[in-house]
Structures are given as structure tokens and as C-alpha cells.
Write a structure and sequence with these properties.
Shape: globular
Number of strands: 28
Distance between the termini: 57 Å
Bound molecules: flavin-adenine dinucleotide
Number of helices: 13
Radius of gyration: 25 Å
Strand order of the largest sheet: 3-4-2-1-5-6-8-7
Helix content: 25-40%
Length: 550
């Protein structure tokens, strides 16, 4: 028995395997899919694996038609976190029977179950009670639930407009084009990456926390996906200008060092992901004082966001139409489509689906004006690298310093509440002072000419991105659940990337595209909810209830 016996002629087919093992079975499945002329257009494989960092890992594949998600978790916990409708289940090495209910919740109406090693009576009974009907040999079953499955939302026509050609918009365009969508990418400037994504260098690294909280889990998933995704579009140092040279993050003080030691002692992270260095080790590596120790993120580094945008647009192929230099556009619904117009009213593009990826400029769209987003000014300082210690990696603490690229090192960045677009000496001074503390050299950057760049980060109050259909605040009523919040039909957002646009962009775009296509989601459902733009509708409601005492 094999998924290929059942997938013929299907639009998509999702296989869930409780044991990835050495990966040979997944390889064979993908090979069978390649060879089968009647294969489903898209094959999704989700498998439980051992030895991975916690969380779902989406592993980019050679073909756009295949997704592979690996998850290291006990079966019950894994099923509770999957956002997928499963067509074929392969059970091996399963313990207990509590998984049966969660499995039934995810199973498609005609799901097939294959049993690799015999189930015990309790497991068979639990699965049968959930609607799995076993054959005589009890090695396979068909799902025949009495409860009808909730129909999946219809996949919209595969035509979209993406507004904004920064990291967020270019990633959205690429992930949609990879799924066969025709995408019009609209940008007011004549080129991509001229606003927040226009910096010479952005750094990428994971975030750690003692309690592995939601922001940590999200940034880890985004970081790991970004590393793999960049490889798939030409690689850092290849199509993408930058270097995966490692990031050394100095501990802020003794307290931070203490907390870091506790995280390191938990022992769950492979050294290539994060390695804690005590002061002597850190100083030996850095050649400078590191009195409280440091984290070394070997796979971290820096990249020029504009080159990431270019690589993503190149990977779109001919399904992408760029409408750049059209000035600030507006957005109006008409007859089930969205019309994007230039300031003079001329139609720029029209489609049933729009992805708003306008960064700090998004609040100007009435449909996004009530989202609690703010524009946070940041100034980066460009320094003559010859005047600084030559670093083989990115160094950071409160501030960061990138290695030289074309003779320039970047130090940054400030966080300011005003809207001044011009470079200013006070911000440069702030960057220089932090740089001096970072490299323990009071002479570093002294008398540097005023050079750098100002940008505006798009930031939500919880510092997490907004991914998904935009809520309609006006009609939200007394909604209590995310799924009940009314949305602007066909209007989605990829917003609020704050200071981590490089790593958020690939995963958030993948998540949005997967949702539009009813595919298995590349993130655990609790993390998906944490990114839902409608979370702010519920929060505003709770706040107003508290204020009114109800
Ligand atoms: C100083 C500074 C330092 C940073 N450092 C890092 C770092 O080290 N690492 C990291 O990962 N991130 C960093 N960031 C954050 C990162 O730059 C952003 O998260 C990312 O660039 C956001 O991408 P975006 O596509 O959402 O926004 P943007 O790049 O701003 O793109 C939005 C696009 O939408 C267009 N647009 C908006 N409104 C309209 C309209 N009405 N009509 C037409 N077009 C419109 C804009 O012109 C713009 O091109 C930094 C940001 C700043 C400001």
C-alpha cells in the first residue's frame, strides 16, 4: 500500500508519516511523484523526525510542487499543532491511543491509514471510535467519519497584486509565483528596495529565551526557513550579496550572561545554531574584551536586503509583472476585485487578491489605517572599514557592526520616534558611542563624516509581524475568536517586520501563500494565530471591555 495508489488526478495530496527515519521513504515518495504522469499537482509531506530543534521545519524542495515539513514532537503534541488536512497517514512506532482524536480532526473525508507495525487493541478501538474502518488484516483503514468535514475555503483565482517591492512584497510575489500565480508587483519608486529594505546591510540571527516563548519560536522558525530558502534562490554570497559569516552577540551584562548560561545548560541547541562562549573563549575569538561572554551564531551573518529582493524577483520568472515608479497607489474594491490606482486615478492593476506589503507606508491605506502600526525611524552609520578592527563576523550587543563590504562597515541602528528622513549628527553620535562600547575603543569612529542611511521600520505593539487577511474593524462587532473576525475579502497583509525583515520575509510569505492555497501550514497553528492581523481586533475589544468593567 502506498500514497501513489490513491493520489491520481488529485489537485493536492497530503501525506503524514509518524516516522521520518533516515528520510529514504520520503525520497522514494517524491521520486514516485516525479515519475507518475497522473500525480497530484502538489504533494505535501509532513513527517515526525528526531533530533531537530523544536518546531515545524519546512524544507524547500527541488520542485515547487512538493513541500516537506519535519517536526520533532510527540505524536499527540504534533497533531494538535498541525494546520493541515491529511489524505494519507502512515503510522509507525506510535504509543498510547490519545492521538486518535487529533488525527481524526485533521483527516480528510476519505483519508487512508496505513499501519506499519501492528496496533494494539486499545489503539484499534480508539481509531475505530473516531471513524477509521479497518480492513480484515488491520493493517490499513479508511476514514469514514459520521461528521461531515468542514469544507475548505475556495482557492481564489490565481491572480494577485502585491503592493510594495521591499523584502515583504518581493517574497510574497516569489512564493505566489512558485504556486502558479500571476503576480503584479506595484511599487511607487522606480526600483525595488528603496525604503526600509534599502540598507547596505541587514543582519540575521536567531533569538533565544529561557522559556522558549512565542517570539523566540517564531524567530527560530523564520531564521531556519530563511537560511534554507536563500540557498534555494542562489545563496548568500552567491545571488545574494552578503556573508553567512557568523554573528557574535556579546552579553549585555552579568545578568544576561547568567540567563544565557542557563539556556546553554539546557543543552538542546546544536552548536552551529547557537553556542555560548565564556569570556576567555569569546575574547580569543574576537581579539577584543568580552567581559561577560557571548553567543556565537555560526549560521548568522549579513545580507544586502536589496540583493535579496532582486534574487526573489528573479526567481519569480515570467509570472511576475513589475509596475514600478507609479507613485503612491490607492486601493478600492469593485465587483469582487480590487482596483489599484495611481494618484491621477489611472488604473495600475486589478485582481481579486491583494497583498499589502507597504511597510511603514501601509497606514495610508484606509483598509489598514486602524491597525496599530507605527513607523520607527532608524539611522545606520556607514564607516570607512580601514579605521575599525577587521572583524570576520558580525559583532553585536545593543548595536551592531558588520564586516567590511566594499570598504564600508555599517554600525547601527538608532530607534527614534520622530519622522525626520534626513541623516542627522545626533543619531550618528549615538551609533558611534555604542560602537565604541562594542569594540572597547573610545577612538573608534571618532570624526567619521556624516554618512549612512535613514529608514522607517513598520512596527506592531507586540513586535511581531502581521500575516493574513486584514480585519474589517468597522464590522467586527463583539467577536471573540480570530476565525470569526470579519475580513476585507481578498485583502491580505504582510506587515510589521520591525527590525527582522530579512528573516520574516520568506516564512511569512510562505505562510500566506500556503493559506491562500489551503495547503498544510509551515508553522504550528498557535504561532500562526500569533501572527494573525485580527489579533488586534480582539485585543482592542478586551481592552474596551476592561475599561467599561464588563
Ligand atoms: C535602520 C534600520 C536598520 C535595520 N536593520 C535590520 C537588520 O539588521 N536586519 C533585518 O532583518 N532587518 C533590519 N531592519 C528592518 C528591515 O529593513 C525591514 O523589516 C524590512 O526592510 C521591511 O520590509 P518591507 O518590505 O516590509 O518594507 P519596505 O522595504 O519599506 O517596503 C515597502 C514598500 O512599499 C512601498 N509602498 C508603500 N506604500 C505604497 C503606496 N501607497 N504605493 C506604492 N508603493 C508603496 C514603499 O515604497 C516600499 O518600497 C532595519 C530597518 C531599519 C530602518
Amino acid at each position: 500500500m502506498n500514497p501513489a495508489d490513491f493520489w491520481q488526478g488529485r489537485e493536492r495530496y497530503t501525506v503524514f508519516d509518524t516516522r521520518h527515519g533516515d528520510g529514504r521513504r520520503v525520497d522514494a515518495l517524491i521520486e514516485a511523484w516525479r515519475r507518475d504522469p497522473a500525480r497530484p499537482k502538489r504533494l505535501h509531506i509532513v513527517a515526525l523526525a528526531e533530533g531537530l530543534l523544536p518546531g515545524l521545519h519546512r524544507i524547500p524542495q527541488a520542485e515547487d510542487g512538493v513541500t516537506l515539513d519535519l517536526l520533532s514532537a510527540p505524536l499527540d503534541a504534533a497533531l494538535a499543532q498541525l494546520g493541515a488536512r491529511i489524505d494519507y497517514v502512515r503510522l509507525e512506532d506510535v504509543q498510547g491511543s490519545a492521538f486518535a482524536r487529533a488525527l481524526a480532526r485533521l483527516a480528510a473525508g476519505d483519508a487512508v491509514l496505513e499501519v506499519e507495525d501492528a496496533l494494539d487493541e486499545e489503539q484499534l478501538t480508539a481509531l475505530a471510535a473516531q471513524g477509521f474502518v479497518f480492513d480484515a488484516g488491520r493493517r490499513s483503514a479508511r476514514f469514514a467519519s459520521r461528521k461531515p468535514r468542514q469544507p475548505l475555503p475556495a482557492v481564489p483565482p490565481r491572480r494577485a497584486i502585491v503592493i510594495g517591492a521591499g523584502l515583504a512584497g518581493c517574497a510574497a510575489a516569489q512564493r505566489l509565483c512558485a504556486r502558479g500565480w500571476q503576480v503584479t508587483l506595484v511599487e511607487r519608486h522606480p526600483q525595488a528596495a528603496m525604503e526600509a529594505s534599502g540598507n547596505l546591510a541587514g543582519i540575521f540571527m536567531p533569538l533565544l529565551s529561557k522559556d522558549d516563548n512565542i517570539p523566540t519560536r517564531l524567530t527560530r522558525a523564520a531564521y531556519l526557513y530563511a537560511l534554507r530558502y536563500w540557498d534555494s534562490i542562489g545563496g548568500i554570497g552567491g545571488a545574494i550579496e552578503g556573508a553567512a559569516c557568523g554573528v557574535l552577540q556579546l552579553a549585555r551584562d552579568a545578568g544576561h550572561a547568567e540567563a544565557s548560561r542557563a539556556i546553554a545548560a539546557a543543552g538542546s541547541m546544536p552548536p552551529e545554531f547557537a553556542e555560548w562562549l565564556e569570556p576567555p573563549q569569546a575574547e580569543a575569538l574576537l581579539g577584543l574584551p568580552a567581559p561577560d561572554g557571548a553567543w556565537l551564531f555560526r549560521q548568522g551573518g549579513w545580507a544586502r536586503p536589496g540583493s535579496v529582493c532582486a534574487a526573489m524577483m528573479a526567481a519569480c520568472g515570467d509570472r511576475l509583472t513589475a509596475r514600478f515608479g507609479v507613485g503612491s497607489v490607492t486601493l478600492d474594491p469593485e465587483d469582487g476585485e480590487w482596483l489599484v490606482r495611481a494618484a491621477d486615478g489611472a488604473l495600475v492593476a486589478q485582481a481579486p487578491t491583494v497583498v499589502l506589503a507597504g511597510g511603514a507606508g501601509s497606514g495610508a491605506f484606509p483598509q489598514a489605517a486602524r491597525l496599530p502600526l507605527s513607523a520607527l525611524r532608524g539611522q545606520v552609520t556607514h564607516l570607512d572599514a580601514a579605521t575599525l578592527p577587521a572583524l570576520p563576523f558580525v559583532l553585536c550587543r545593543e548595536a551592531y557592526l558588520t564586516p567590511a563590504a566594499n570598504g564600508v562597515a555599517c554600525a547601527g541602528a538608532t530607534y527614534d520616534l520622530d519622522a525626520d528622513p534626513a541623516l542627522r549628527a545626533a543619531s550618528q553620535q549615538e551609533n558611534i558611542e555604542r560602537l565604541q562600547a562594542l569594540v572597547s575603543d573610545p577612538a573608534a569612529g571618532v570624526d567619521a563624516p556624516l554618512q549612512g542611511r535613514v529608514g522607517f521600520r513598520c512596527v506592531a505593539p507586540d513586535r511581531l509581524p502581521l500575516v493574513g487577511a486584514l480585519p474589517d474593524f468597522d464590522t467586527a462587532g463583539s467577536t471573540e475568536r480570530l476565525r470569526d473576525v470579519p475580513r476585507h475579502p481578498g485583502l491580505h497583509g504582510l506587515l510589521g517586520y520591525a527590525s527582522r525583515g530579512l528573516i520574516w520575509a520568506p516564512l511569512c510569505a510562505e505562510l500566506l501563500a500556503a493559506r491562500l492555497e489551503n495547503e498544510p501550514l509551515p508553522l504550528e497553528v498557535s504561532l500562526v494565530d500569533a501572527l494573525d492581523p485580527a489579533r488586534f481586533v480582539l485585543r482592542a475589544r478586551r481592552r474596551s471591555n476592561q475599561l467599561s468593567g464588563s
